[in-house]
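Comment on both lines for my students:
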Amino acid sequence: MVEELTTMKLTVCVSPTQHHAVTNMVYVNPSETLAPYIIINEKYVYNCAHNADVKSGTIALNAIHRRQFIVSPGDSIEVRDFIFPLNRNYTLKHLTLSAEYIRNEAGMPNIVQLANEFRNSFENHVFLKGQKVINDRIVFEVTSDEEGILTLNTEVDINWR
């Protein structure tokens, strides 16, 4: 189960740059003492990184994160440290995603190549059912019941909506 280390309320702000927005990470000021993984509103786990461009007391979320938590910049959100369960292997063996285009510029990508790109881009991210992830042109939603950390050995299946 999830073990508590630190709980705090932070004010939501936008990602520092477009590049940061597509990493699926959340960003806080270096003065915040949060673990590398945090759980937001008791719902989803995200990699948490420090960024000096984020003001103290705030958390930078991309548009997909804000939509999932139904928050806007200036709203507060509860975060707490997340550590991996000690009673089981928390590595994902299989991850199933549904995908939809937000920008279709290059036509339909090769599904195997897309799964490999996803795995490489989001290695060491934690995924839970219903969690959404964005890259530069596709929104992915986790449809697997299994939760855990994505590794290069995780089998990734993608279904188009």
Observations:
- Residues 111-121 form the longest helix (11 residues).
